[in-house]
Battenin (Huso huso), 322 residues
Amino acid sequence: MDRSKGEVSECSLCVPVFFIIVSFSTGIWMSILGVVFASVSSGLGELSFLGLTSFFHSSVISGWSSGTGGAGILGALSYSGLTQVGLSPKNTLLVMLLVPVLMMISYFGVLVHPPSLPGWSRKRAPPQTDRGARRPLLDEEDHQEDVTNTETLGLKEKVFIVRGLLKYMIPLAVVYFAEYFINQGLFELLYFPKSDLKHSEQYRWYQTLYQLGVFISRSSVNCVQIKKIWILAALQCVNALVLLLAVYYQFFPSIFIVFAFILYEGLLGGASYVNTFNNISRESSDSLREFALGAACVSDTLGISLSGALAIPLHDYLCRLP
């Protein structure tokens, strides 16, 4: 089986394993194991599908980003809706086993593969004419030998490519670090006891508004394009600092102010994601685009991992405050 087929199949198979383990979980470690499978599926899926976008029209980046943003809010709303009508969390997760089935059908049965991907092999895509007067970020002219596809890249070439990507990768990692620092460390502590919403409902609305912001901004690249991702990183860090101080000093008078900040957080995160990969796709040469997009996936994962390492002890510390 071709490697592209294998990666997609593995990604789809990890999803039902995650749903089954979590739905039948009897302890925290079993739940964590399920989350690990979910993370493997998410990371492998992002790596595989972003790499495959290099074989399609450049506008597919916008479609991919919008779809992943829509998946977040659809997932949150579907879980809330199914549990609200009376399904238990266990049965709700089991119903969600339909998702990997739809993934396999859509990829193997619905997706029309381009001529540049015969037999689903990793061959170089033909030059795309819609790039316009792009400013090459990664071009063959910078290499001593002509690279015809990503399979021929050696360590030296890969290091060179990653160095050229750092201007996008570092800001994206910072954005996701600050973003998931808020999500993992502060959401639960932004609690308003006098609100008409219960604690769990407040948390649910935070997640929904965050996903709404992500969806809106990930769908915006055809209207607004941003080159300087570092600006979004700086704004997200300020956002995280404000919300951390709000948890510590409790100075927000209304939950609606927090709602606005969280929607804003999602907008910044989604905009940084879609513009990072859109810029890389447009500025990379045809032969290196697949590897460049795949390598840049490390950024958001690194930011999320580092934020989790900091958010967990900080959350416990804030919980112990009088």
